[in-house]
Amino acid sequence: MSAGGERRREPRPGGERFEASEAQARALASGVRLRILRVTLDEPLTNREIAGALELNPATCLHHVRTLVDTGFLEAQEPRRGRRGAREIPYRATGRSWYADTPVTGNGMVEAFVAELAQVPADRTDVTMARLGLRLPPEELAEFRSRLAALVTEFHDRGRDPSAEPWSLFLVLHPDTSSRPRD
């Protein structure tokens, strides 16, 4: 807390949106890699700790960690001594993935969302879900997209309060293929 009693928020890394390279887009197309970025967002974790948190084989996890490091989405921190004095390298998400424009072609985000949601205890009553079908003219759809983007960006840019409970939001706006188009 600051001298005035307010909680300090960790600043978000500033950045401009950028077109992801092919390697960066492939890195972000993996649900496992997205989950690695999520678990390393607030604290640096070693490969062993990441593998344990995500129930992955450490060798498989290391492959994904190296891919994220190579593409700039994860960075190695200062080495530390782990169990039995072994040298371990903790990794932390850089926050750059937020600014990467990638083609929406894979199911990586959906896979990460489903895996994370499956870990939420069934007795939690504070999970909010909504599903909405819309029919908006192009100008209203553009307004809807713009307002959603502005709201999400506003909360992203506020930073993270390390003492607050972490929450996750998954939002998709897509053409509804279950409805018949109007003539």
Write the topology of this structure.
Elements: E1 18-19, H1 22-28, H2 31-39, E2 45-46, H3 47-54, H4 58-70, E3 74-76, E4 80-81, E5 87-88, E6 90-93, E7 100-101, H5 108-118, H6 138-157
Biased composition (Basic and acidic residues): 1-20
Pfam families: HTH_20 (PF12840)
Protein name: Transcriptional regulator, ArsR family
Describe this structure in words.
This is Transcriptional regulator, ArsR family. Residues 1-22 are annotated as: Disordered. Pfam families: HTH_20. InterPro entries: ArsR-like_HTH, WH-like_DNA-bd_sf, WH_DNA-bd_sf. It is a single chain. The chain is α+β, with helices and mostly antiparallel strands and 183 residues long. It has one domain (18-157): Winged helix-like DNA-binding domain superfamily/Winged helix DNA-binding domain (Arc Repressor Mutant, subunit A, Orthogonal Bundle). The chain has six helices and seven strands; from the N terminus they run E-H-H-E-H-H-E-E-E-E-E-H-H. The chain has helices at residues 22-28, 31-39, 47-54, 58-70, 108-118, 138-157, and strands at residues 18-19, 45-46, 74-76, 80-81, 87-88, 90-93, 100-101.
Number of domains: 1
- Report helical residue fraction: 25-40%
Q: Just give the CATH class.
A: Mainly Alpha
Q: What is the strand tally? A: 7
Query: Whole-number average pLDDT?
Result: 88
Helix count equals 6
Structural class, judged by helices and strands? alpha+beta
For the largest beta-sheet, the strand count, sense and barrel status come to: 3 strands, antiparallel
CATH architecture: Orthogonal Bundle
What gross morphology would you assign?
globular
Give the spatial strand order of the biggest sheet: 2-6-3
